[in-house]
Design goal:
Elements lengths: L4 E6 L2 H16 L10 E5 L2 H7 L2 H13 L4 H8 L3 H13 L4 E5 L2 E5 L4 E5 L3
Parallel strand pairs: 1-2, 1-5
Antiparallel strand pairs: 3-4
Length: about 120
């Protein structure tokens, strides 16, 4: 199933572990869990989101989605950025789950499997 949206939000570590505890409890009790329909990613502060999703990284995500570059080198050319910096940004975006890398014909192609990112901030 292709994920259409990634939800990003701010949550405390305590809240995240509380959700994990609740989920494990449901599994142990034999309850059926709802299927995952959208990816979720949480940061401990809005500042964390801002550091992770810089304008240049958001531009890379847009280029990957719209232009579908065949390699990291091609992505760097499309973005008009240094390959070293693009490689580092793609690696980071992969680590946080926003980019996947697919090996094809001696190249590594960056891909994303969602159409939009939804930012959720509780007030």
């Amino acid at each position: 199933m292709k994920i259409k949206k990634v939800k990003i939000g701010v949550r405390s570590v305590r809240d995240v572990f509380g959700d994990i505890k609740d989920t494990v409890g449901k599994i142990e009790a034999g309850e059926k869990l709802k299927p995952v329909t959208e990816a979720e990613m949480y940061f401990s502060s809005f500042e964390g989101i801002r550091k992770a999703l810089t304008p240049k990284r958001l531009e890379l995500l847009h280029i990957i989605k719209m232009e579908q570059p065949s390699s990291i080198n091609e992505l760097a050319r499309m973005a008009r950025r240094d390959i070293k910096n693009v490689t580092a940004d793609v690696k980071y975006l992969e680590q946080i789950g926003l980019v996947e890398k697919k090996a094809t014909d001696h190249k590594t192609r960056p891909v994303i499997s969602y159409d939009k990112i939804a930012l959720e901030i509780a007030v």
